[in-house]
Write a structure and sequence with these properties.
The complex is a heterodimer. In chain A, the strands form two sheets. Chain A has a two-stranded antiparallel sheet. In chain A, strands 3-4 form a two-stranded antiparallel sheet. In chain A, 33% of the residues are buried. In chain A, a hairpin with a 5-residue loop joins strand 3 and strand 4. Chain A is mainly alpha-helical. By secondary structure, chain B is of the alpha+beta class. Among the domains of chain B are: 39 residues; 242 residues, Roll (Dipeptide-binding Protein, domain 3), CATH 3.10.105. Chain B is built from 23 helices and 30 strands. The chains are: A mainly alpha, B alpha+beta. The interface between A and B is large, with 45 and 42 residues.
């Protein structure tokens, strides 16, 4: 994906989020909810952690290509006179460059000053010894290095974007489907309901992993493909929730009043029903977010996850399969992936819970 | 006081059940006294599709079949380099050559003069087939629902005759046999295509006859017509008398003798094919492909391909002594203790289907499998580096169990191919050649082997693995294009050399001088799901980036990847390996002959390398005996390959096999699989070790039960 396209999408999404936040801040209902979440210290801390992750992902999603220079520092031009650009880097890449440059040959433990693997060295009197060589950057790797000598902290930070994108994009792909189908099924009932119910029963009966695997085989390995596949496989549960919620709202007095005034069905749907199910979507998004991040780890473990040049926690866990059987155990990669994933998934869950408490009208009245 | 009889009774029942369960506590997968019997336990970890010696094409299938059939030629069990011996023949067959006019050519004539060569095989008289109901015309089903050939009787047997080799060869030509070797054999044996046509015509005639006799068309597929292979003419083989036969080749091809060690030429008694074609045997779903009849040291006793294959000793196996001499260093060692004793030593072989590595490894450690390859994941558990010598050795725990390790470098070469038809990396132009050399230098194989294979491999100089005639011997003959001698071993040249080559090629710092754009190389692979592929790819990309080249992956599923290969629609190919069919350099060097080009001729020359200079030398050395002249030609061929670098020479893997202390006479053979007959078991030691290593741990159950009893019996406080 070109940087231009990616930057545009990111900015578009940011604008959308800002607009939603602005719109929500004008409403009493959302303002109250925000206050209630802010009053819980745990939820607030979790929110801040989530924001940090999102910020890192954002830094890693905006980037640009730079013109290449030759040895004399002159701009490189190709034969048609155009300036030659490199592959481009995100802001995070630029920030982490010093970390990325600290390369070793292979594994080293966190803060170690010697290599994990010993190498054979022949001494002057002809004896061969197994020596652990000094690292290029002794005590320079907070979380150690991986098989090809990359800093694990760098790997983990670069994986944040993958995790967040999978969590967010998957849900963003699933929401339009579930929203449209859910409210339509609930509101119109009858044959519309029958068809939609039939559809989501069929889709939810296909095992997700099987579906994603088939999708990846057809469309190839990659982050966008993975998100689309997982989004298409996972809209059903939200759809079911929204249908139930709509069934309830349909009986509400203001809907009946709107009907009596002769408002068209679609207008009622978008004026009265959709705004009143938004909290369900928000809660599900936050809660589902964590399960999608975990799903990526499982899928990568099965070899149907992201491509080879994308870092992800799933890849790190997949590598741990062989690393854990070595003696001494190479634990730092698995532990790093675990800690970073926990740092995302746990706050997402706590925050989601707090959000539900704040938004669910039934819980609030009690 | 009234005793709580009900409680006491219940507890007694519980105790009885627990003690009975603990008594039968046993993890032996083979049953109680299995260790005492003279039975070898082996794993099959890949699916076996059939046991037809003419069609089975995989090494794990050969591992079973080679114990059932015996071939006229075989490799000496102990001697290395590999040497041919003649288990079924009176002497090693020699070639006689004829020119186009049919005049015999004496000595070692030039290959271009030879229009025909003949090999005469003199069979030892008195070699018998295994007992089998097919050899008795009166045999019939002994039970109501026969499931094995043994359910028919009585059994007969007969001598192996020259005619059986013809039956076999004509059957190989039958398209219904599905032999994967037919195409390759057509390249050197006379008249196979004609023979295939004759078989087809005969089958058609038989089918028509059966239809005319009123049989239903479906019967032709459920019980295919069996042509009399003995009567169909085939120019490739001539039967001189009962014990003498002649193979006729259409050119000079000394490697033919190596092919005769492989089961594709196994003698087949026509009676066996007739037996499986009998209506009542056919109705019992017994087939030759699952129950071959042969003359080897073992015969099939049980054949459940997805569960277990059991072989038992063939009582008719002709007396074969254990070899009495081996390599010079074998003199006086245990491996010659059995010299002269009659083979085979082991009565029964069980091949057990066990596709997962971890259960297999566990069963090996518990002593239930007698030998095991070493799963890569378990490498560090089982191995330790000897601190003094830097040599691989077993970890102390393994050594304490009496396990022995054998490390061998089998004749396998891994390489990463460039597509020589690609405009950027391919072709024989100077620019592309230098670019290929630069890429190959940047990918430091030695580091790769250290990082990804635990140092278990040898960096390739060229395509020939060590042990094959003509293989590079650094520093005298080595790949000076990519590697340099550092005083102890051959190492990849410095990155600066690669950078310099790029400048010469017109890609300074990876920027194409002609267009001014950066150079991107695309790596084709079908390994997305393989563990470590991602790391390997990142490692390669990093190394190429250091010289300014960008590497991008193009992953496909296996089918798509194959299609791209045959279309020649790719640039750089991820790891590919070649396993030798026989220990001759021709088998490796032909990978670069233009007549084997993959796109044009569907041959194994995947890089589509085509150089008239190389072809000429290859044609010369192809059929030569291993003389110093041949060595010189191989060196020349190697030099051309080094210079052109059509592939990145990768590494020769090192295989590690572990055997338990009770398995004697083990010598790894990486080319043939007929070696079980030489092995001997110390069953007493096996039984003792198995018992020691698998003591059930019973006390937690007894402790729990005691606590439970006490808790029940202690009266409750009021």
């Amino acid at each position: 994906m070109s940087w231009f396209l990616q930057n545009s999408i990111v900015i578009l999404l940011l604008a959308l989020a800002a607009w939603l936040a602005f719109a929500a801040s004008k409403r009493e209902y959302w303002r109250l909810a925000a206050k209630e979440v802010a009053a819980k210290r745990g939820a607030l801390v979790c929110g801040v952690i989530l924001a940090c992750y999102l910020f890192v992902a954002l830094l890693d999603s905006i980037g640009w290509t730079s013109p290449m220079r030759d040895d004399q520092g002159e701009l490189l031009r190709n034969n048609s006179g155009e300036i030659v650009y490199d592959q481009g880097e995100s802001i995070l890449d630029k920030l982490l460059k010093p970390l990325d440059r600290r390369r070793e040959v292979s594994y080293s433990a966190p803060l170690a000053d010697k290599n994990y693997t010993a190498e054979t060295q022949v001494t002057e009197d002809g004896q061969s010894l197994r020596v652990h060589n000094s690292l290029n950057h002794p005590r320079g790797h907070l979380l150690g290095t991986d098989r090809i000598g990359k800093d694990v902290l760098w790997l983990s930070l670069k994986s944040i974007r993958t995790g967040i994108i999978i969590g967010l994009l998957t849900t963003l792909i699933a929401i339009p489907f579930s929203l449209l189908m859910g409210v339509m099924a609930g509101y119109f009932g009858g044959w519309v309901d029958d068809i939609i119910q039939y559809l989501y029963t069929v889709v939810s009966s296909i095992p997700t992993i099987l579906f994603v695997a088939a999708f990846i085989v057809i469309f190839g390995n990659g982050l966008p493909q993975l998100c689309i596949a997982m989004g298409l496989a996972s809209w059903t549960s939200l759809c079911r929730l929204l249908r139930a919620e709509t069934l309830r709202l349909k009986e509400a007095e203001y809907v009946a009043a709107a009907k009596a005034l002769g408002t068209s069905s679609w207008k009622i749907l978008f004026r009265h029903i959709v705004p009143n199910v938004l909290h369900v979507i928000l809660i599900t998004t936050v809660l589902r977010f964590s399960s999608e991040v975990l799903a990526e780890a499982v899928l990568t473990y099965l070899g149907i996850g992201v491509g080879a040049d994308t870092m992800s926690w799933g890849t790190m866990i997949n590598d741990a399969r062989t690393e854990l059987t070595r003696d001494p155990v190479i634990w730092w990669k698995l532990v790093s992936a675990f800690v970073f994933m926990l740092g995302l998934v746990l706050p997402a869950n706590i925050f989601g819970d707090a959000l539900r408490d704040a938004l669910d009208p039934r819980l609030r009245t009690q | 006081m009234k005793l709580p009889w009900m409680k006491i009774f219940s507890l007694a029942v519980c105790w009885t059940i627990l003690l009975a369960l603990l008594r039968t506590c046993d993890n032996n997968p083979w049953g109680k006294n299995a260790a005492r019997e003279n039975t070898l336990y082996q794993t099959i970890s890949f699916e076996i599709r059939n046991l037809d010696p003419l069609a089975a094409n995989y090494t794990h299938e050969s591992a079973v079949i080679d114990n059932i059939v015996e071939m006229p030629l075989a490799y000496h069990y102990l001697k290395r380099p590999y040497q041919l011996v003649t288990p079924m023949l009176t002497e090693l067959p020699a070639a006689t050559y004829f020119d186009a006019q049919g005049n015999p050519l004496p000595g070692e004539p030039d290959a271009s003069l030879v229009a025909r060569s003949e090999y005469t095989f003199h069979l030892e008289p008195g070699i018998l087939y295994q007992p089998h109901p097919c050899f008795d015309d009166t045999s019939k089903a002994l039970v109501e629902h026969p499931r094995r050939p043994q359910d028919f009787g009585p059994c007969g047997f007969r001598e192996v005759t020259a005619e059986d080799f013809k039956t076999s060869l004509v059957r190989l030509c039958d398209i219904r046999t599905g032999s994967p070797m037919f195409g390759q054999f057509c390249g050197f044996l006379e008249g196979l295509q004609e023979c295939r046509k004759a078989v087809e015509a005969e089958v058609a005639r038989l089918d028509a006859e059966r239809l005319a006799a009123g049989e239903k068309p479906t019967a032709l597929t459920t019980r295919p017509s069996l042509p009399d292979y003995r009567k169909i003419p085939c120019d490739a083989i001539q039967i001189v008398d009962r014990h003498t036969l002649k193979y006729v080749l259409k050119r000079k091809y000394p490697q033919f003798l190596y092919w005769m060690t492989m089961h594709y030429f196994a003698p087949i008694p026509f009676e066996a094919l007739q037996f499986y074609n009998r209506p009542e045997v056919n109705a019992a779903e017994l087939k030759y492909v699952n129950w071959p009849v042969a003359n080897g040291p073992y015969m099939l006793d049980k054949c459940e391909l997805d569960h277990q294959i059991v072989l038992v000793k063939n009582p008719n196996y002709h007396p074969t002594p254990y070899p009495s001499e081996g390599n010079p260093e074998d003199q006086g060692t245990d491996i010659l203790l059995d010299a002269g004793k009659a083979l085979p030593f082991i009565d029964k072989i069980v091949f057990n289907w066990d596709p997962e590595t971890i259960p297999t490894w566990t069963k090996f450690q518990q002593g239930y499998y007698d030998n095991s390859g070493l799963p890569v994941d378990e490498f560090d558990n089982a191995m330790s580096m000897n601190p003094a010598g830097g040599e691989l050795s077993l970890s102390p725990e393994m050594e304490a169990k009496g396990i022995q390790m054998t490390a061998t470098v089998p004749p396998i070469s891994y390489y990463m191919a460039f597509n020589m038809r690609d405009p950027v990396v391919g072709g024989l132009g100077e620019r592309q050649r230098l670019l290929r050399q630069a890429i190959a230098i940047a990918l430091d194989t030695r580091q790769y082997v250290t990082i990804f294979r635990n140092g278990n491999g040898i960096m390739c100089e060229g395509i020939l693995p060590p042990g094959i005639f003509g293989a590079a011997e650094p520093p005298a003959t080595m790949n000076t294009v990519l590697n340099a001698w550092d005083g102890k071993e051959s190492v990849r040249k410095e990155l600066s050399v690669a950078k310099e080559l790029l400048v010469q090629a017109g890609y300074p710092n990876g920027i194409d001088k002609e267009t001014g754009n950066p150079l991107v190389i695309y790596l084709d692979h079908a390994a997305a799901g393989k563990p470590d592929f991602k790391n390997t790819f990142r490692w390669m990309a990093d190394h190429l980036k250091q010289i300014g080249i960008q590497l991008e992956e193009k992953g496909f599923d296996l089918n798509r990847s194959r299609q791209r290969l045959s279309e020649g629609n790719w640039q750089f190919l991820y790891a590919r390996g070649w396993v030798a069919d026989y220990p001759d350099p021709e088998n490796f060097l032909m990978l670069f002959a233009s007549e084997n080009g993959h796109v044009e001729h569907h041959g194994p020359n995947y890089s589509n390398y085509s150089s008239p200079e190389y072809d000429e030398i290859f044609r010369k050395l192809e059929t030569m005996p291993n003389t110093p002249q041949r060595k010189a030609l191989i060196d020349q061929a190697n030099q051309i390959l080094y210079r052109d670098t059509p592939v990145v020479w990768d590494f020769h893997p090192r295989n590690i096999t572990l055997t338990h202390g009770w398995l004697h006479n083990y010598r790894p053979n990486t080319i043939s699989y007929d070696t079980i007959k030489y092995l001997r078991l110390d069953t007493a030691l096996r039984e003792k070790c198995q018992r020691e290593w698998n003591r059930p741990c019973k006390w937690p159950f007894l402790l729990l039960m005691t606590l439970f009893t006490l808790a029940t019996l202690v009266p409750k406080r009021k």
